[in-house]
Amino acid sequence: MLRAIAKVGASASFLVFGWSAGVLHAGAAGGATAVALALAALGDVLLLGRSRGPFLAGLVAFLLGHIAYIVAFSFLGFALPATAVSLVVLGAAATLVWRRLAPHVGRLRVPVLAYIAVITVMVAMAAGSLAAIPTRPARAGLLLAAISFYLSDLCVARQRFVASDPRNRYVGLPLYYAAQLLFAGLVPVVAGVAR
After folding, report:
1. Number of domains present in the structure of the chain
2. First to last CA, the chain
């Protein structure tokens, strides 16, 4: 019970922070980010359950959240060549991740593979966004957020499918919440610059 209250409270904090940072007033990119944050908070609640059903629902919520971040990056602007190069490099890393997870995911093969693909595109879009206007530190912060989210998800996948280990949470949770706070705080800044 205490774990659930703490997790819901932590997730509510990045929603409140995004609202106070002006994400709802940051145009289409801010709107997409608000949707992504809400889906992440929903995913957090769903992942409190330990059975396959809530896990799959949480996976779908986070997958849709990553799609919302992709939409946000499309509105913030991105350099297509840098995004494509990043996608090739990250695709190689994603292939290694999939090879490690595939023997352990059972009937969740398709959703997990789709999730890996979508989060890989999200990080590539963040890299492309930085390349669009590399002199803007807030864009570098968004790339850091995307990478942190990716790494936190690796910790979740390791915990769920490979090895249950408290270190997965010790590393993954700070990365995850830092990523959400960075997205919530920096998208309004970048959207303001882009106007």
Report:
1. 1
2. 45
pLDDT in tens, 40-62: 999 998 888 778 888 889 999 99
Do the beta carbons of residue 115 and residue 149 sit within 8 Å?
no
**Length of the chain in residues, anyone?**
195
User: pLDDT tens for residues 149-190?
Assistant: 999 999 999 998 998 888 998 999 999 999 999 999 999 999
pLDDT tens digit sequence for 182-194: 999 999 999 884 4
* Structural domain containing residue 37: 2-194
d(CA 130, CA 145): 12
132 CB neighbour count, 10 Å cutoff: 19
Q: What is the C-alpha separation between 60 and 68, in angstroms, rounded?
A: 12
CA atoms within 13 A on the CB side of 14: 28
